[in-house]
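Pair request: fold both.
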Amino acid sequence: MEGQPALAVDLHDVLIRFGDFTAVKSMNLQVGDTEFVAVVGPTGCGKSTILNTVTGLLKPASGDVRIFGRPLTGLNDQSGYMLQQEGLLPWKTAQDNVGLGLVFQGKSVEQARAQARPWLAKVGLKGFEERYPHQLSGGQRKRVAMAQTLIMEPRIVLMDEPFSALDVHTRRLMHRILLDLWQAERRSLIFITHDLDEAITLADRVVVMSAGPASRMVGEVKITLPRPRDVSALQTTDEFVALYREIWSLLGSEVEKSYATQN
C-alpha cells in the first residue's frame, strides 16, 4: 500500500519444483522490516527451500519474490545466511573466520581483524580471538558463526536450525545472545526451527508449514510476549503455554501426516 514501508521479504504464490517433484506450492510469506519470523513445520516440508529462495540460490518455477519491494534477480546481496553446520575454516583463528567476508569484500586482514574483535566481544568471546575452531566448544563455534554472519551487516538474516545440535543449556545461552544482538540492531530475521519453544521464545510471529510434498503455509500465530524477553523464565508463563497450544493445534496434524507418509 502506498505510503507504507516496503516489506523486507515478500513471497507471492511461489511454486518451487525439482524436476517433477513439487516441494513448495502457493507459498505466501511476508516479513516486515526488522521483524523476527520463525518458520516451523514437519521434516521435509521445504523450510530450508524457502530460505534458499530468499537468498536467490533457488529460482521459483512461478510466483514473485520481492526484497524491499524490488523483484529478486540473481543472488540477494542484502541477506546473510547462518546454516545448521557452521562453515568455519579450521586453519583460521576465530577472529579471522569472523572477518573472512570483509576480506572477500576487499578489506585488508588487519582491517578485518579490527572489526572482528568487537563482534567476538558481543557474542561473549573476548579473549578467544586467537583460538582455532578445534579449540572451541560447539556453542563457542556457533557464536563465531553468528558473528561471522552479522559482521556483514545484512538487512535480512536467515538462520536454518542454527542451534539444533546444541544441548538445552547452551541453546538457551544462544537464544539470549541472539535476542540481545537483534534487540540492539534490529534486522529482518527468518529463523527455521523444529522446536516450538525456541520459535515462541525468539519470534514476533510463527509461520506454520504443511506436510510435504507441495507444502504450503497453513497458518501463523502472532507472539504477544513483551520484549525484551527473559529466556530463563519465559517458558513457565501461562501466556507461553497458551501460545504453544495454539501453534500445536496448527502443526500437530501436519506432523502426523508427514509421519504417515514416511512410514
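--- second member of the pair ---
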Amino acid sequence: MSPQFIQFEHDTAGILTLTLNRPAVFNALNVPMLEELLETFQQEATRPEVRCVVLTGAGRGFCAGQDLEERRAFVEGTSAPPSLGESLRLRYNPLILAIRELPKPVIGAINGVAAGAGCSLALACDLRFAADSATFIESFVRVGLGLDSGSSFILPRLVGLARAFELAMLGERLDAATAAQYGLVNRVVPAAQVLDETYALARKLAALPPQALGRIKRALNYGLSHDLAEALEFEATEQELAAHHPEYKEGLSAFFEKRPPNFG
C-alpha cells in the first residue's frame, strides 16, 4: 500500500511507526486520511513481525481532530447537513476499535496538540508519552457537538467522572503536565526527546512475549466493562490458553536456568 497522508515504517526490532502526515493543518483528519489510517492498522499492524506500534504526528501537532474544511459547504449553505453518524460508523468507530482490539501495544507519542477526535485518538492508545509542549482539548463542545470516537468511554476511566465532565463540558486546553497529574498520559518528556523516549519503551515491549502482551491487553479491556466474577473467569480462560503456548515454557525454562528469556 502507498498511502498519501499516513507514513509507516517497520524496523528490525518489530516496531511499526505510523505518522499522521498533514502537518500544514496539524494532521486534521479528512476522509482519505481516516481511510488510510484504518487500512494501515488493519494491514500493516497485524503483520506477525510487528510487536509494537508507535503512533505520532508530523510537524508541530499530533492531530487537530476532524478537518472542518469538509464541513464548509454545509456552513455556506451549498450542501445538506453532513451525516456525522454515518461518518463515525464508517470511519472513526472502526479505527478506534482497530486500535483497542489490536493484540499488541500501541503507544501514542503525543508531539503537539491533540484536539477533538485527535484527543480521542490519543486516548485510544494503550500508553501515551507526551511532549512537554503537548496539549489536549476535548473541543467537541466548541462546535456544538457531544463526544465521539470513544472519548465518552475512555476519558472517565482515565481521569474519573468529575474531571471528565470538566474537560468535556468546558472544552478547555489541558497542558501536558496537568494531563500527567490527571492520569491522562504516562509520562511527559522534553519535546525534542518524545520520540526517543517512546522508542525506548517500544523496544522494551517488543522484547517481551507478544502473546502474553496480547492477553494482558484483552484482559484489561475486558475488565473495563465486566464485573469481578466475569473478569476472574476471563483470566482463568486466558491463563489456560497461555499455559499451552511456547512462551510459558520458555519463561519457566529461563527462570530455572537463571538466564534471560528469549521470546523472539
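Observation on the second member. The chain has two domains: 6-206, 210-257.
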